[in-house]
Amino acid sequence: MTQGTPLARTEAEFALRDLFVRGLDGDEAAYRAFLQKLSVHLRAYLARRLFGWPDEVEDLVQECLLAMHNQRHTYQSDQPLTAWVHAIARYKMIDLLRAKSAREALHDPLDDELAVFAESANEASDARRDLAGLLDTLPDRHRLPIVHVKLEGLSVAETAKLTGMSESAVKVGIHRGLKALALKIKEAI
């Protein structure tokens, strides 16, 4: 297998999944082997996406491994391991990019006129109204998970119980709903 080949549904994924599941069952050697093999794949995955920041890749690999270890109980064995791994890696990468953006914004000079403070008092209510309008265009299976989890702060489990959906359906609803919203916003721009 070449380094650029996706892990999904390959021998490498099955081997990693086997080590991971054995590790979850208490096999320390298998779990250690899983972490070592996974770090190689994560390093390649992140290096391709962060080619402008090679110094960040190793730190991010370690953060991902730690997050995967801490969240190992969330893995659903009927799902591809790669999907779970890549989701965690993407979230960690987004966190890194947000942090870098925030740090860079701290160094932006303020205008003499301080126009940054001259925004409309109605901006927050306008944004809420616009968001509500966009959310209303989504089917309930996408809209409700976004409202409950992302806006109201409920957990996936709480949202599943509240809506009668499975936890997987809630997660898929959020993902697909946010993707649909992004597309609608992009079309509007």
- What is the count of structural domains? 2
Helix content: over 70%
The CATH C-level class name of the largest domain: Mainly Alpha
For the biggest sheet, the summary is: none
Roughly how many Å is the radius of gyration?
20 Å
Low-confidence stretches: 1-8
State the CATH topology of the largest domain: Rna Polymerase Sigma Factor, Chain: A
Based on the coordinates given, report the CATH architecture of the largest domain. Answer: Orthogonal Bundle
CATH homologous superfamily assignment of the largest domain: RNA polymerase sigma factor, region 2, helix turn helix motif
Shape: globular
End-to-end Cα distance, whole Å, is 42 Å
Helices and strands, in N-to-C order? HHHHHHHH
Instruction: Tell me the number of strands.
Output: 0
The quaternary organization reads as single chain
Number of helices: 8
Alpha-beta classification: mainly alpha
Percentage of residues in strands: under 5%
Keywords: DNA-binding, Sigma factor, Transcription, Transcription regulation
Domain RNA polymerase sigma-70 region: 43-101
Family: Belongs to the sigma-70 factor family. ECF subfamily.
Organism: Variovorax ureilyticus
